[in-house]
Amino acid sequence: MSATKRSPAPAAPAAPAERAVRVADLAAELNVSTATVSRALNGSPAVRPQIARRIIDHARLRGYVPNRIARSLAARSKTFVGFLVPDVQNLAYSIAATTCARLLGAAGYQLILAITGDDPRREHEAAVGLAGAQVAGIIAAPSADITEDCRAALAHPSVVEFNRTAGLAPYGVFCDDRAAFVEATRHLLDLGHTDIAYLGTTDAVSNGLWRLDGVRDAHAEAGLALDPERVRLVAPTEENGHAAAHELLGARAARPTALLVGSSNLSVGVARAVRELAVGVPEEVSVVVYGDPKWSGLCDPALTTVAVPYREMAQVVADLVLGLVTEGQEDAAGPDEPGRRWLPAALVVRSSTGPPRPRG
Amino acid sequence: MSATKRSPAPAAPAAPAERAVRVADLAAELNVSTATVSRALNGSPAVRPQIARRIIDHARLRGYVPNRIARSLAARSKTFVGFLVPDVQNLAYSIAATTCARLLGAAGYQLILAITGDDPRREHEAAVGLAGAQVAGIIAAPSADITEDCRAALAHPSVVEFNRTAGLAPYGVFCDDRAAFVEATRHLLDLGHTDIAYLGTTDAVSNGLWRLDGVRDAHAEAGLALDPERVRLVAPTEENGHAAAHELLGARAARPTALLVGSSNLSVGVARAVRELAVGVPEEVSVVVYGDPKWSGLCDPALTTVAVPYREMAQVVADLVLGLVTEGQEDAAGPDEPGRRWLPAALVVRSSTGPPRPRG
DNA sequence: CGCGTGCATGTAAGCGCATACATCAGCCGC
DNA sequence: GCGGCTGATGTATGCGCTTACATGCACGCG
Considering only residues 53-82 of protein chain A, which place a Cβ less than 7 A from any atom of strand C? Predict the structure, then answer.
């Protein structure tokens, strides 16, 4: 294989599995008790500095690594935080994972990742797994069809919902999707569109609906009604977005003058379909996509985008969960919904939206 | 807040922290010994089916969740697998995380995520943290400047390197970047380019260099030398890619006729710069980017891309680590480098590469 | 000079669970 | 009809660590 010879030589097969160094070993080797070793290692002031030094030095010399499992059991301490999400390829969750790993890591916690793929069965297993791992807290983006068992398993530790809610906890961090889609729809309405299609997700309990609500509300506000024929709700995959866009935009005659997309995955598929169909954007149809404004800005034309504040959301949820696991309870954030935060999305207006061509 | 009233009501504050149900509780309630309960719950054949049923039913009724920490300690079993990566926003790692979480999860393991940001200090802490958590195995993408301490902490469990190597283990899964860049460079050479620039990463121990090697080798193969002036090595951030592309392509006179980009993050920055500079692609300069072919296909023009086989890599590493943690040792994969797999990248030729304009 | 005080350390009891070993019943064969 | 054997269950130990409590020592005071 071509790259073979350039790679560093692999390490020799690990030494023949010598038993890991334990506190008892250190204690025996230094002629002190395990209690003293434990105290020294944990920085207890009750041990003479001189002895403590000796113990700590010897521990590092011997390559001692404390067994967190045993420590956790003995001290009834919790050092893990669960992260329960459908899909870590989704930018919202990967950024949250990064941020939480950093902030919680600095506080001595480690993230346990549970990826459910929005499958209720796996979600349940994951929830039980996390609960069994004695996590200090859980960040969860529950699926639409979460089971009762799962809900029960998630009942105990301090959990905070993220990006979606199933009413699991009084704490949560979300994007204010409804407001975002009110704004996006208004933008189209103001340009003169009256035949607007919405392509969204079937995501039943959470933000999928908030977005549709926003579209509806903005229509109502303008004295219009969103035509049910113009609403497509599908599972949020790129392929579905691609297919739906082909359907919606394929037939020139039956085309809406504007298309709102309510999911980041769908958006990618729509962008691809628009390119394939070579439909004039925005002359023939205006397009608003959702999610990460980065790639959509590189498209031709650059796509007007509902830009979700991924980083802010991540920051806020990390702070929130950190507060919960360290201090026990977080101070209430607002009067009516303590602990729930709704972050605003920004509408990034680019070249994919414009006035509709006059109907002939 | 606008979306407030539409969200499901948060759950009532969790019940006043009743003690979790333990094996001993179940045993007492059913007038059997803890041993019998434990056996029943673990499906031991040594317990009468009738009793087993009763115990299992009662356990689920009481909402018993086994304490994995204690179980792990008592049975000396390991139920975690560590996942040590620089950055989970990178598609290579997020896909690997997804796949590993699924496959390992199905086998009863749970991923512990350690994100280092390529900071040696955090990397070391993470390695110790994982080792202390008694992981069954570790998937690691070591940083270029991994410390000796970290190396030592990573010595024991069955570790497999992913995407990058620091010679930590005899097992690993990588993209054959060198071959990929030989192919990409040949593609440009065949088109007639002789003034090719390479924008890559400073990533010292691993694939950053393999890519540059590929570019060099392909040049050598054609009897050409890669001009050192045409090589830019920077840290792989989008901003750096953006800045470097502005530098390289800004001055029309001093422009190379083709640009190879050797990092997915840099590629995004380059794409943005190209768009800003309004430089003719491929008439004035051909561009080859690296990484995910999805977004680069939506650019204008669609970018020729070294498409990394993220999914295959993820699949292979998941299988590999699963084999290691369950069976102990994996069968050797190849004659010379047992356990190391190099997966080929595909060159997706699109519209951003063409023959150079004749020099005047 | 004896006794309380406080501090450094040791001793031992778990944490929740699995499991080696002991126990005890029922069964077979002779 | 009794020894040994199998199979179901109980008893008790320990995983590696923390920590309440006991111990012992040096010191100061009356």
Answer: 70, 73-74, 76
